[in-house]
Amino acid sequence: MGAGYRFVDQVVKTNNLHTVCEAARCPNIYECWDRRTATIMILGDVCTRACGFCSVKTGKPTWDDPLEPVRTALAVKKMDLRHVVITSVDRDDIKNDYGAEIWADTIRQVHHHASDCTVEVLTPDFKGSKPALLKVFAAEPDIFSHNLECVERISKQVRSQANWQRSLEVLKYSVKHGLQTKTGMMVGLGETTVEVLETMKQVVDTGVSIFTIGQYLQPTGGHLPVERYVSEQEFEEYKCRGLELGFLVVESGALVRSSYHADEQARLALAAV
Question: Which residues form the Radical SAM core domain (predicted)?
């Protein structure tokens, strides 16, 4: 818990914000917060879905905080971030747009209060709603990210309330609208190497430019078990293969999560535009 970690922790708590770093028990929290990077989680800390891999609380959300976008932006400004990742719980209970308007307002507020900071969004699928996605796109995030999480064959056991092909369509829609687009997945859930490579090929063919791949770690005894631990050599092979396929950036390693080193990924991807 160095000075950077304590500073980020203080800003997060003072501004009454949630982070996926804490909620999802990320193993990189000390490294990232010490570098003054954090992934802010909007729309509360209770998710309407119950994915088999995720430790974020699930249930009936009671969030009602219209000032959250402003507080998020002011926290980003106070931390003097060059790059921020914003994510959220799934809010399938918000029937008009699944929370997309709050997403858009948060992006706009960060652009306004911290204009030198690039904004990466890691969004839910908004149930595939194109009007909801367009609200987010119109706010002009620098990078749009939505995770496939795993290979298609095991998707239902990993994300019972999601749809793998729908997630792929979300990524395609982002690319179609000219956004730098990113996705990520976990391994160690029962997939094969061939399936991972096939997934990478499907993703790069959509035009996605940033790809992350990391080891699934079981957050509690009630979550999906780890089927295998992937070797560092295999992760290195995925990185090499991904770059050969055409991704601009591939982050591959045991402790890689979708926001790990996101600031460095953004600089590389945005410089290539």
Answer: 33-248
Structure tokens given for 91: 């809010």
- pLDDT tens sequence across 47-82: 888 787 777 788 888 878 889 999 999 988 988 888
Q: Print the domain residue range for 214.
A: 3-271
What's the pTM?
0.90
Query: Average pLDDT for residues 163-176, to the nearest whole number?
Result: 97
Q: Give the separation between CA 195 and CA 150, rounded to whole angstroms.
A: 10
Residue 74's region, left for phi above 0, alpha for psi from -120 to 50, else beta, is alpha
Instruction: Give kind and range of the element (H or E) at residue 107.
Output: helix 100-113
Question: What's the rounded Cα separation, in Å, for the pair 212 and 26?
Answer: 15
Give percent above pLDDT 90 in the chain: 60
Our count of domains for the chain comes to 1
Q: Which structure tokens are listed for 251? A: 């982050």
**E strand or H helix at 158:** helix 155-158
Q: How far, in Å, CA of 27 to CA of 31, rounded?
A: 9
CATH number, domain with residue 11: 3.20.20.70
DSSP, collapsed to helix, strand or coil, labels residue 9 as: helix
Take residue 223 and report the two structure tokens written for it. Answer: 């979550």
